[in-house]
């Protein structure tokens, strides 16, 4: 693929000129060089192959520091220290990384965030603990378009505990509002589970207002932060959030299958009993006693032996976010999505594309979703040519923009490629139009 080739002469393309100018003045632009594959000259040779990556909201790029960290770990921390590594650092690592993440991106004081199991298992543990703590209540409130894992896990918990699911109707082009939550919660609500950023539309929910409404009804709230952690500022302590869970392989660049994080508000920790009792969550890990006695504090939410190798890479992105400041990360995220929407309106809307994401940045997370019946085919063709957006049924193409690793020119190139492929399909061609030069 040749970078910057378009159907419009570059000298006349105001969008490309804008993208190049924004990259030159971008205060976060130099962080791109910290990622694998991006540590080259800002302007590669015209015939140099490159990947346009617009899927950081599904799997973030690896950092160079993480490659070095993992390599050193294999040879030194594991290779030389061997089992002594548990005493050196590993035993505390789920909590020390959790505290660092809480500080950098979640608005959480120390002792409330831990790195543990997969997102699914972490969600199950915290949701089960929540409903079990309110045995007199019989309902869980959730929405119909939440991520499948959330819906499946909660359906399983409801079946286990004889609870009723109360569904908020949410579509693929919006999200859950405060009024919808207010209409569903009541004296029987034990738990409300929602996503901060909707995985399809990118709709940004009102965390403080919804949390307050649930609390007025006497319910607990669990927020899924998978599509916001590391991209959108979160203020868990300030907003009075009870519980939260999120993955680390999207904007935190933890790598495929990296363990998730869990947040439990400090005041709740003594009252919650997590259902997967394992030795790492015991008060005395090495007592090996006949019965389980939970640890005090956030450690009680650990279960089995932590995935130490899996939690190494996220540390480097957490450190970058802490260095930059999550508000600056968010500012660039907003600017990138605004630019993407400008390109969509100029190039894709005339081809029949509709925008599924909120237009107002105050209601939008870090990705933009555009709909068209041909988007599944568009995505397949783009992937074959090293342009990588994401597809979500029924007809959504997601443009995921990671502020620390995505440039304005990369955003330009990606949306231009979507335009050229879609135009080719509509003209009856099977691949990229010749004007794309890809």
UniProtKB/TrEMBL annotation:
Q: Which GO terms describe its molecular function?
A: kynureninase activity; pyridoxal phosphate binding; transaminase activity
Q: Any idea where the Aminotransferase class V domain is? A: 117-374
Q: Which InterPro entries match?
A: Aminotrans_V_dom, Kynureninase, PyrdxlP-dep_Trfase, PyrdxlP-dep_Trfase_major, PyrdxlP-dep_Trfase_small
Any one Pfam family match given in the protein's UniProt record, by short name: Aminotran_5
Do the record's keywords include Transferase?
A: yes
User: Can you state the subunit structure given in the record?
Assistant: Homodimer.
Protein name per Swiss-Prot or TrEMBL: Kynureninase
Q: Which organism is it from?
A: Cryobacterium adonitolivorans
Upper lineage = Bacteria, Bacillati, Actinomycetota, Actinomycetes, Micrococcales
């Amino acid at each position: 693929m040749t970078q910057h080739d378009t159907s419009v002469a570059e000298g006349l393309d105001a969008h490309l000129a804008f993208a190049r100018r924004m990259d030159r003045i971008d205060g976060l632009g130099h962080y791109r060089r910290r990622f694998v594959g991006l540590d080259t000259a800002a302007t590669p040779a015209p015939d140099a192959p490159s990947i346009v990556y617009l899927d950081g909201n599904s799997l973030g790029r690896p950092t160079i520091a993480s490659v070095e960290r993992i390599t050193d770990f294999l040879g030194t921390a594991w290779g030389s220290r061997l089992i002594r590594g548990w005493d050196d650092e590993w035993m505390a690592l789920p909590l020390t990384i959790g505290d660092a993440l809480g500080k950098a991106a979640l608005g959480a004081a120390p002792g409330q965030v831990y790195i543990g199991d997969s997102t699914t298992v972490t969600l199950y543990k915290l949701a089960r603990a929540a409903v079990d703590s309110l045995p007199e209540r019989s309902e869980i409130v959730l929405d119909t378009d939440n991520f499948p894992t959330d819906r499946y896990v909660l359906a399983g918990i409801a079946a286990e505990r004889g609870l009723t699911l109360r569904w908020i109707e949410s579509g693929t082009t919006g999200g859950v509002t405060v009024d919808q939550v207010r209409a569903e919660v009541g004296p029987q609500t034990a738990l409300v589970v929602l996503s901060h950023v909707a995985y399809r539309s990118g709709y940004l929910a009102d965390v403080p207002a919804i949390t307050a409404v649930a609390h007025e009804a006497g319910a607990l709230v669990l927020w899924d932060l998978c599509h916001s952690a590391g991209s959108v500022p979160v203020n868990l302590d300030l907003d009075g959030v009870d519980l939260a869970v999120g993955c680390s392989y999207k904007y935190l660049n933890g790598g495929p299958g990296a363990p998730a994080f869990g947040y439990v508000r400090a005041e709740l920790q003594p009252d919650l009993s997590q259902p997967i009792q394992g030795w790492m969550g015991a008060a005395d890990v090495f007592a090996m006693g006949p019965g389980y006695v939970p640890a005090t504090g956030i450690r009680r939410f650990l279960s089995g032996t932590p995935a130490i190798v899996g939690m190494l890479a996220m540390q480097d992105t957490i450190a970058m976010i802490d260095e930059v400041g999550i508000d600056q990360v968010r500012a660039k995220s907003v600017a990138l999505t605004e630019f993407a929407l400008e390109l969509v309106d100029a190039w894709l809307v005339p081809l029949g594309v509709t925008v599924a994401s909120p237009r107002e940045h105050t209601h939008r997370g870090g990705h933009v979703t555009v709909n068209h019946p041909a988007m599944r085919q568009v995505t397949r063709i783009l992937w074959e040519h090293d342009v990588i957006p994401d597809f979500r049924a029924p007809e959504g193409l997601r443009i995921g923009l990671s502020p620390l690793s995505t440039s304005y020119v990369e955003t330009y190139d990606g949306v231009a490629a979507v335009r050229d492929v879609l135009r080719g399909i509509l003209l009856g061609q099977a691949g990229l139009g010749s004007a794309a030069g890809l």
